[in-house]
Amino acid sequence: MNLTQKTKEYLKNNITLDDMLPTKMPIYVNSAGYLFGVIILCALFMLILSGIILAFFGPTWYHFSIVGHFVNSVHFWSVQVFFLSLICHLFTKFFIAAWRDGRFKTWCVGILSLAVAIFCGFSGYLIQTDYDSQWIAVQAKDAFNALGIGSFLNVMDTGQMLTMHVVFLPVVLIFFVLIHLYFIRRDSPVKPIEKKGASK
Ligand code: HEM
Asked: How far apart are CA 162 and CA 151, in angstroms?
């Protein structure tokens, strides 16, 4: 069996077209608590879009262009919306214990996405190409050297950090988000917690 056949079999046995692209949701999904996941996705879309424009014009563009400054601000505002909704999403999922009924993997991949997103954010502060980013890099290098990884991950190397922020970490993040979405579509939203003694 080749890889394409294996993938086809796996998808056929694990997810239906109706699950993948649903047009109806259970009634309990009609709640504000379910908006945060979608807001994160919208913010991620805006991050990628503004990030692509910034990447095209180079890392110093926003220092001398008003349009560049605006696109850079859109990128930063998207980061703020992204992390705010991510924290709200984490809390709402925590309080409905959304890891129940086999959704532990969805929860873990969510945590991995959060971890990668944090590092992606940090690497963004290192490529501002100003005194601020130089200061942060000089402070951060001590932590990386103390961990013994300073020689292969050099936070003072703007080129390396640019690749980390623009290519490597976003690709890993998108990969985890896609797995997260796959698990969500495959398992469907978890049922609300039943009150003890409530009639069924
Ligand atoms: C980039 C990060 C993330 C994105 C884009 C994302 C996106 C989503 C979306 C769109 C949903 C479906 C709608 C909803 O229930 O809100 C969802 C569900 C879920 N998320 Fe996330 N999420 C992320 C991070 C996290 C984190 C950090 C956690 C927990 C630590 C988490 C745990 C869950 C769980 C358990 C569900 C399933 C809820 C259910 O079955 O009802 N997610 N996520």
From this structure: 17
The answer to whether the CB of 173 falls within 8 A of the CB of 120 is: yes
Distance between CA atoms of residues 112 and 180, nearest Å = 10
pLDDT at position 197 over 80:
no
Q: Which two three-digit tokens encode residue 137?
A: 């890099």
Domain boundaries, the chain: 34-96, 100-190
What are 183-195's pLDDT values in tens digits?
A: 999 999 999 888 7
Residues within 6 Å of ligand 1 by CB: 34, 36-38, 40-41, 44, 86, 89-90, 93, 98-99, 103, 106-107, 110-111, 113-114, 117, 177, 180, 184, 189-190
The pTM (predicted TM-score) of the whole model is 0.92
* Residue 85 near residue 43, CB atoms below 8 Å: yes
- Write down the number of H helices and E strands in the chain: 9, 0
Tally of CB atoms within 10 A around 6 = 10
What superfamily does domain 100-190 belong to in CATH? Cytochrome Bc1 Complex; Chain C (1.20.810.10)
